[in-house]
Design brief:
- This protein has helices at about 25-40, 65-85, 105-115, 115-125, 130-140; strands spanning about 10-15, 45-50, 55-60, 100.
- The protein has a four-stranded antiparallel β-sheet, with helices on both faces.
- The chain is an alpha+beta fold.
- About 25% of the residues are buried.
- It is about 40% helix and about 20% strand.
- The longest helix has 19 residues, at about 65-85.
Length: about 150
């Protein structure tokens, strides 16, 4: 009998130095690539969206791959694609990322949160770092700010 896994992660990471370079057309290309890369690793992207300086993903993970390896591959391939297509951009992701577990019952709420990133950031003047700090606080975690500065 095979193993069973039902693990959902809300993953958040930013552009290098939080540069606001995720324009709509670049973001759409990246989101499409995230779906493809995740699928090739046996994961499912349930939601993906972001702001010009950061991105959110809700992923149903595959227990055969580490989330670190999947995020690393997503970042590597998306940087490669954007830098190949838009040579003047100098597009890079920040090295670190945050991943928070999501219970199955909260998946719809997190999907809604991710899909409505633009209105969330428009209605409340929240930065990527303050948003990350809020997620960590709800998860009873502490952020090592040396990684994010």
């Amino acid at each position: 009998m095979g193993s069973l896994s039902s693990v959902y992660l809300h993953i958040v990471f930013s552009t290098k130095n939080r540069e606001p370079i995720l324009t709509y057309y670049i973001k759409d290309e990246i989101i499409s690539l995230f779906h493809t890369v995740s699928s090739s690793h046996g994961c499912i992207v349930l939601a993906c969206n972001g702001m010009p300086d950061h991105i959110h993903l809700l992923v149903k993970t595959n227990m055969q791959k580490s989330i670190s390896d999947i995020v690393k591959e997503i970042k590597r391939l998306s940087s490669l694609k954007i830098n190949t297509k838009y040579k003047d951009r100098g597009f890079y992701w920040q090295h670190h990322f945050a991943a928070f577990s999501v219970s199955h019952s909260l998946v719809p709420k997190v999907i809604n949160y991710i899909k409505n990133q633009e209105s969330h950031h428009l209605n409340t003047p929240v930065t990527y770092l303050s948003e990350l700090e809020d997620f960590a606080k709800h998860a009873n975690e502490t952020i090592d700010w040396d990684f994010y500065e």
